[in-house]
Amino acid sequence: MSQIDVSIIMINYNTYDFSVDAINSIIAYTKNLSYEIILVDNASPDGSGDRLYEKFNNKIIYVKSNDNIGTSKGFNLGLKYAHGKYILWLNTDVLINSNFIYQLYSFMEENRDCGICGGNVIDFNNTPAHSYSNDLLSIKFIKKDLNIFNRIIRRIFKKQVSYEFNYTKKPKKVGVIIGAQMMIRKSIIDEVGGFDEDIFMYAEESEFTYRAVSKTKCLVYSIPNATIKHLEGGSFTKDTRFNERRFYWFMLGTLKCIVKSYGEADGKKFLEIFNYRYNRGLYVLKFFNIKNKYEETLSKHNIISEMLENYPKILSVWK
């Protein structure tokens, strides 16, 4: 098959309704370029993958995994079927209502130094959401992100800080685009490889970006006029209560990204920072008798403490 402009890779795991809406929005709004939609089903127990294939048939390239292989392996599986000059990783819990994909594509066509880009993300209440990070994931960035001032801005003013959402009207050089809407030049993937398959899920885009920027010196851009809606965590239960499994995967993926980028010493620092944070939080919650958050914080603290006790052996755990 001859090369097309954009290969869109989506990974489904029990997200039939979200996937239907996402794919329909892509078909409805994507103009002025050639594209293909590659849907990877991670052995969804609810049979949603097969139902999506039945619904869209020749409008998608359907790839079925024999097991839930996670995000990194799922993305790399989809790559094997991709023919695009650019690869767009889209979550299934997104909606586009403009020519979003073309906006990213045309920027990359006009700016050859750009290896990765993404747009501005808004949630389903039209509120600005986490779209990128200004810096590559590192201990320094984590300390900045946990800064009390930035946390006050988010919680009191219900606003993303400027290093997470592009409030300007101009493209901006950033550190990492969130994986929900990440466009990558295929030649970059050919040079540095796909996602690191040691990471089951979470932070795979950060690890890849570190590798891509370090090896190719490509630039990463936020394109503010390209907007997309994202319901984070669509493949998890709609229950808003704390999800221990999701938090564990988040911490493990981020830990592996830190270690692969900077070494085991920084990995231990990462765990120690969060262990201290949640340990201190337990004392504060207990002092003010805030019971509704105490159990969640205790669960997080226990997960991190166990990771510290088993460090660095925990790095060999996949999921």
Number of helices: 11
Query: Structural class of the helices, strands and pairings?
Result: alpha/beta
In total, the number of strands is 11
- Main beta-sheet strand count, sense and barrel state: 9 strands, mixed
What is the CATH topology of the largest domain? Spore Coat Polysaccharide Biosynthesis Protein SpsA, Chain A
Strand fraction band? Answer: 15-25%
What is the name of the CATH architecture of the largest domain?
Alpha-Beta Complex
Total separate domains = 2
**Uncertain stretches:** none
Mean pLDDT: 92
In brief:
The protein is an alpha/beta fold and 319 residues long.
Attribute tags:
two-stranded antiparallel ribbon, 2 domains, alpha/beta, 319 residues, Spore Coat Polysaccharide Biosynthesis Protein SpsA, Chain A
